[in-house]
Amino acid sequence: xxxxxxxxxxxxxxxxxxxxxxxxxxxxxxxxxxxxxxxxxxxxxxxxxxxxxxxxxxxxxxxxxxxxxxxxxxxxxxxxxxxxxxxxxxxxxxxxxxxxxxxxxxxxxxxxxxxxxxxxxxxxxxxxxxxxxxxxxxxxxxxxxxxxxxxxxxxxxxxxxxxxxxxxxxxxxxxxxxxxxxxxxxxxxxxxxxxxxxxxxxxxxxxxxxxxxxxxxxxxxxxxxxxxxxxxxxxxxxxxxxxxxxxxxxxxxxxxxxxxxxxxxxxxxxxxxxxxxxxxxxxxxxxxxxxxxxxxxxxxxxxxxxxxxxxxxxxxxxxxxx
Amino acid sequence: xxxxxxxxxxxxxxxxxxxxxxxxxxxxxxxxxxxxxxxxxxxxxxxxxxxxxxxxxxxxxxxxxxxxxxxxxxxxxxxxxxxxxxxxxxxxxxxxxxxxxxxxxxxxxxxxxxxxxxxxxxxxxxxxxxxxxxxxxxxxxxxxxxxxxxxxxxxxxxxxxxxxxxxxxxxxxxxxxxxxxxxxxxxxxxxxxxxxxxxxxxxxxxxxxxxxxxxxxxxxxxxxxxxxxxxxxxxxxxxxxxxxxxxxxxxxxxxxxxxxxxxxxxxxxxxxxxxxxxxxxxxxxxxxxxxxxxxxxxxxxxxxxxxxxxxxxxxxxxxxxxxxxxxxxxxxxxxxxxxxxxxxxxxxxxxxxxxxxxxxxxxxxxxxxxxxxxxxxxxxxxxxxxxxxxxxxxxxxxxxxxxxxxxxxxxxxxxxxxxxxxxxxxxxxxxxxxxxxxxxxxxxxxxxxxxxxxxxxxxxxxxxxxxxxxxxxxxxxxxxxxxxxxxxxxxxxxxxxxxxxxxxxxxxxxxxxxxxxxxxxxxxxxxxxxxxxxxxxxxxxxxxxxxxxxxxxxxxxxxxxxxxxxxxxxxxxxxxxxxxxxxxxxxxxxxxxxxxxxxxxxxxxxxxxxxxxxxxxxxxxxxxxxxxxxxxxxxxxxxxxxxxxxxxxxxxxxxxx
Lengths: 322, 657
Fold this sequence. Notes:
The complex is a heterodimer of chains A (322) and B (657). Chain A contains eleven helices and nine strands. Chain A has helices at 3-14, 63-66, 84-95, 117-123, 158-161, 189-196, 199-211, 218-222, 248-261, 271-275, 282-297, and strands spanning 20-25, 34-38, 47-48, 78-83, 104-109, 129-135, 138-143, 147-151, 173-174. In chain A, the strands form two sheets. In chain A, strands 1, 2, 3, 4, 5 and 9 form a six-stranded mixed β-sheet that branches. A three-stranded antiparallel β-sheet of chain A has the order 6-7-8, with no helix packed on it. In chain A, helix 3 (84-95) links the parallel strand 4 and strand 5. In chain A, helix 9 packs parallel to helix 11. Chain B is α/β, with parallel strands linked by helices and 657 residues long. Chain B has 17 helices and 34 strands. In chain B, helix 1 (20-28) packs parallel to helix 4 (107-125) and helix 11 (410-424) runs parallel beside helix 12. The two termini of chain B are 21 Å apart.
């Protein structure tokens, strides 16, 4: 049976227990599925599962993030579709005790790959997309204007290309069979390369990137770890750590403190990067931090719920510091 | 806002490097500053009067004093300001002495830096608010950790003063290192004869609760209200029932190294440390007990002889770890010291030669209650030594083993042991290899002379290069630096003067108590001269050798000193707490409770607001103002009063202007 069919069956099974289930449904085109809230059985048929279902639904969980806008009731129970990478976000939030395991049901989706639209756009004009079919390690893409066969490796998200955790690390129900993880080797290649250049070059490179930031805070909104919501210090006036101006220095400051707030917590889900409307490679900063956390503390965020994140505890003598 | 500014000459301490007149003039032109003067000694009575008068005359609402470190005089100035009726927290100090004049030479640049420091402080003080302290009740009980002579003295002084004492000791008996000594310098009086009366007093005093064979598990709370969890290790003997008759020890078939005699002579798996132990009870060492060993191997060999012979059925193999919670107002740490392990010295045999022993082992050989009943018999063959060589500074004053400090007591105990050797064996000869003789206290120098003249100890100034066995003895080869020649002594017994190191486990304890320690593991006093028995954590005090090497008189003096300090503290019914504590702005708190996890003082609690949201709240009397929560809070919803974000931003902005 197809993974989607199993999912639909499972959603039908758990729907009486929960207020609703969050899954994916068709968006405005085949490349942009959107989050879909299933609260009635008739909606189940609209669920989809393909290479473009990318949103990290862990973002819907932290109460500070959802209670103020009234989207959810505080005591409701929900179900959600969770990929391997998303499950790490959930583990991180559980470690932080910001969410509680008995308030949601995880439908774990083993995930082969997701297509990076930014990469795909470089290969083909996707605005007129008609069909996208995967066969083997190639994809046949058809638009109104042309038809192309593209190597999948060239259009996968980086995180998928080196995916160590394609199967959810935490779940109530696993949908279908597990898939094989890929090698992590080379994941930090871009960071390693960036580290080689001089400090001046690094600064000017990032200033150029951050200069494009429009402070829409999409990165923050898409990040499951960023749950300060309206109390985010990027917007508060008291204390006035950061001004509302669009000077590069303020934008840089915003991006930098967001990165540091995520140090040791970021699971490299890449949502910040994906949602940035001006294409700032935010996840590169996050990746640098996860790399450093791995080096210093031998720790990967969101892998084992029982571990204490290294920056939330202390050791008298750190092994790799000092 | 009317800011008054006072800059202190501090004699020439500040004015010698910083042009204080220029600073005062500059500051007088800053906005909101209505009064700016320079004073010779601001902390003096006339200086304080100037401040008080200026507050009254110029109706000042904020005060900035540029002088020394706030650690020195912040309290002085706060009190002066409080006398005028102004809130004492509407005041800030700029440290232009330690942070400026003392560390710079260039007058012009130092003056410029002083101006910048003052500008920052003025920007900060403009954002100060009136703060008010809280009062908390004081628990009038004291916890003393360590039942050596320092701890016993502190316990007796506290108890005699009418305060409840909890005395926790790691070993099954109190007495500490002093109980292991034979005689004491410089009077050669019997150590246990002067110690055991105090031990008995401590054991029987109605105000002293003795918890032996126990360690501190955790400490929380703050001055006046500490909560301590004591881990009582299972001795497998009911201390309440045991009468200390010792029949179990005599009948026990399991041999074990005798810990009290430091491995000289044999002990048993169940043991009473020494005849005058307090409490005099038996304890089973699990790792040597036949019953426990067979249990661990899954065999059914059940010895249990001790249980069978015990008249009072005190032996109980089912005793489990016990945790005792105690609430106290103050804590005295008197965990003592350990001796340097000389096995790192390969030139002295690296611990392989049985007749090269530590000074404390030698004390046990000398002691009438020791393994040889006071007869000096060398460990290898039980022969009485004719020549005994002492080597000083083993693990002291030696950078190569990471111990550059002087242990202070070894010169004296070597002299004492030389005298005692002559006393026990009148025919014997003693040689002492020394670097310097340090005999600085009362009657000490005379005592060393006595060793040299009366006991005929030969002092050789120089280090020992090598010890090696030959013909059943030991050749000690060294140098006599006064004669400038090599010397070789044929010794029967070599006694090493092991240096003093911090007690094992004292650093872990320090972490639980949140008190600092130095690079050698000794616990740090509040101030080397003015706070010798206090720590930087309020309500926690230090007595004896845990703070640094000390002899018995100094340890006893410190035991009494801490008792005096604690009695002063606990004589108050209430303590004022600092208002410089964290505050959660509950409307901005997102309820992630990371603050709760990082708080070392358990000062954060969860509260529910009227709208049902769960937020963090600081218990102001528990908070110590460390600021960890402030740094942790992702939404910056926590501020530290007196150091708010706005104040710090103002300081930074003033600096960057």
